[in-house]
Design goal:
The protein has about 300 residues and is α/β, with parallel strands linked by helices. The chain has eleven helices and 13 strands.
Length: about 300
């Protein structure tokens, strides 16, 4: 089997069509079709169902069985290539939600960028997409806030927890250091549904149909929206500390607080041999970062 034929088959499965696979691989559609035909003839089986008018591909029963073998074959081929000689630079891709990359992890990213032997790629995903990106080997390391599902292909571990706090514009009179959520008016809230456990806590406090001042899904809007001392927002403490240097806010501890926000690291259970060195470097930097978080978890 040719490496290119197996790679094309896996790309078709990943993208869901011959057309999208051809675009991703910078090949003509006829070349992609020819490679699959050659692979099927060599194996003596039909891998993909071809139906007129059907845009997305469908794997045959034999194709489903071959898929896992193809992934293993590709990994073995890449491992063999890695044995041919040491690489001067190791490449690694990291995927994480934009919120995490922008406000919580800049010191970590800066440290990783300074490693000259590491060719680093950093990609932004929604938290729920990080898991599938690791499972499909689109990225080598994933960082996410949601508890990933159990998988035989992906290893997850808790990196750190951080407290949630309330932020609001500073007031001229004597401020509080803590506040009871029951004394807050949800109509003044800038609401961000941070993670499932937070949403459940929030619903228990104010009900699932509570009216908010506004709901957002990006913290970047905060300097524009937070313009009245009556307004308030519950946010992870790392984000609160970030915005303290930008807008005049104060952080208050919540009595009966929501659950902490938890960050998970996701990696493939069986990484490629050529990725081992880069993963060891990144693991060391991440471990050091988590031991010395750049924000104080105490408010």
């Amino acid at each position: 089997m040719k490496f290119s034929d197996v790679e094309t088959f896996l790309t078709i499965v990943e993208t869901g069509s011959f057309t999208r696979a051809a675009e991703k691989m910078y090949l003509s559609q006829s070349t992609v079709s020819h490679q699959i035909k050659t692979l099927e003839e060599e194996l003596g089986i039909t891998l993909l169902q071809r139906q007129k008018g059907q845009r997305d591909i469908v794997l045959t029963e034999k194709g489903e069985a071959f898929l896992s073998l193809a992934r293993r074959w590709l990994e073995l081929w890449q491992d063999i290539q890695a044995l041919q000689g040491p690489q001067k630079h190791s490449s690694l891709s990291i995927g994480a939600p934009r919120n995490l990359l922008s406000y919580t992890l800049p010191p970590l990213v800066k440290e990783l960028k300074s490693i000259q032997s590491l060719n680093l790629k950093i990609l932004s995903y929604r938290s729920r997409q990080v898991y599938s990106a690791v499972e499909n080997r689109e990225i080598d390391v994933g960082l996410a806030f949601e508890q990933p599902p159990q998988s035989e292909h992906v290893v997850s571990e808790v990196l750190f927890h951080e407290r949630m706090c309330l932020i609001r514009l500073k007031r001229d009179y004597v401020t509080q250091h803590s506040i009871d959520p029951r004394n807050l008016n949800p109509k003044d809230e800038i609401y961000f549904p941070w993670f499932p456990d937070f949403v459940r806590w929030h619903d228990a406090c104010w009900g699932p149909n509570a009216e908010h001042y506004i709901e957002i899904n990006t913290s970047a809007l905060l300097p524009t929206i937070l313009d009245d001392t009556r307004q308030w927002m519950i946010t992870p403490i790392s984000i609160a500390k970030h915005f303290e240097s930008i807008i005049p806010i104060e952080c208050l501890e919540l009595l009966m607080p929501p659950p902490d926000r938890t960050c998970y690291k996701l990696t493939c259970r069986n990484p490629r041999i050529q990725d081992t060195h880069a993963l060891e470097i990144v693991d060391s930097v991440i471990e050091s970062f988590c031991e010395n978080l750049p924000w104080n978890n105490n408010i």
